[in-house]
From TrEMBL:
DUF202 domain sequence ranges: 22-87
TM segment ranges: 39-60, 66-88, 100-121
Listed name of the protein: DUF202 domain-containing protein
Pfam family, one: DUF202
Keywords carried by this UniProt record: Membrane, Transmembrane, Transmembrane helix
Subcellular compartments: Endomembrane system
Region annotation (Disordered) ranges: 1-26
Species: Micromonospora sonneratiae
Main localization of the protein described in the UniProt heading: membrane
InterPro entries, A to Z: DUF202
Membrane topology: Multi-pass membrane protein
Coiled coil location: none
Length: 126
């Protein structure tokens, strides 16, 4: 038999754990998810920079360098904004994630723009 539902207090108290869950694991899962996000961002950054510098240098050297620098700047921004969440030192945000979520969305769109620039300005990377 499950316990009776706990009424909501408007966010002033922590939510009860899901059935069978432990209250401390939510923060741990969130921290690990941000670590995976940062790792994936780093991998994409290195791939974009490598592609830009290896294939794009001959076709458009300045554009290729700018794309590589843009990718590195996007990763650095993402890493700095999410650092408190990755290290577990973030204050509890009640606004849905603070600045980390919009930053992740902007970095994702930025990578799409960098990829499009790679294709358009380096002649399809042939």
């Amino acid at each position: 038999m499950s316990p009776p539902p706990v009424p909501s207090t408007g966010g002033s108290e922590p939510e009860p754990p899901a059935e069978g869950g432990k209250p401390g694991l939510v923060a741990e899962r969130t921290r690990l998810a941000w670590q995976r996000t940062n790792l994936a961002t780093l991998v994409v950054t290195l791939l974009v920079a490598r592609l830009a510098l290896s294939k794009g240098i001959a076709a458009a050297p300045l554009t290729a360098k700018l794309i590589a620098v843009g990718a590195l700047a996007a990763w650095l921004t993402m890493a700095l904004v999410t650092l408190p969440r990755v290290t577990g030192r973030a204050r509890r945000h009640t606004d849905g994630g603070g600045p980390a979520l919009p930053t992740a969305a902007l970095v994702t769109v930025g990578y799409a723009v960098l990829g499009l620039a790679l294709i358009l300005f380096t002649d399809g990377l042939r």
